[in-house]
């Protein structure tokens, strides 16, 4: 699917329920058109992962997700061999008799026994959308490996050979900025910082994603969440938490936000006990002022 302009991609993403501003639509349009990876940084819950999901849905492409974590290495991102099936294969060969040891060893590294992990799967299944989520959790070595893959869109498996993407996958990387990424990786990508949406845009997002929530409750919820983001919390509520809270209140039949209903549903907003205490105090101030 080709996009005619940034406005066109914004409109098509909007059809999936993902609403983006002009700056994000423009950098997404450029990344797709220039076939460059897009690096998205921002606070958790600002819609970085959701953008990859929306692009995949809009373009009717498979979304392949690589969740990064401390200690992840290239093997976990690339491939593995199905040892259990390889052993069964060897036993079957032995049972049939007359096994040539060299041929038997070669047959162990057949396509049938190759388990493709996310990066290899994205290269083989392209066109596809590859989401490298929270790259800032991985270490420098993994970042260097990823940089190499994104430069060539091919990987070499010693026992198998080189696998190249017929069409480079669409690559989105997200970072919550728990550490600074290397300049080399940033230079390979187009970059965009995603902030929490403003009041009116967040109201629009809730209206789009949770149309069952009344307009009055929607505005109240978003107004309070925006105020809570100024409170010193370990993890301020993101858009996903706003949607959860609005849906939770609607599910309980709450038509207008008050202290009692807010206190009962604070678990939809924050996930730390210390944050919950701060939010309860803040709600008392926000809703009674």
From TrEMBL:
Pfam families: AAA (PF00004). Residues 34-209 form the AAA+ ATPase domain. It comes from the Bacteria. Gene3D superfamilies: P-loop containing nucleotide triphosphate hydrolases. This is MoxR family ATPase.
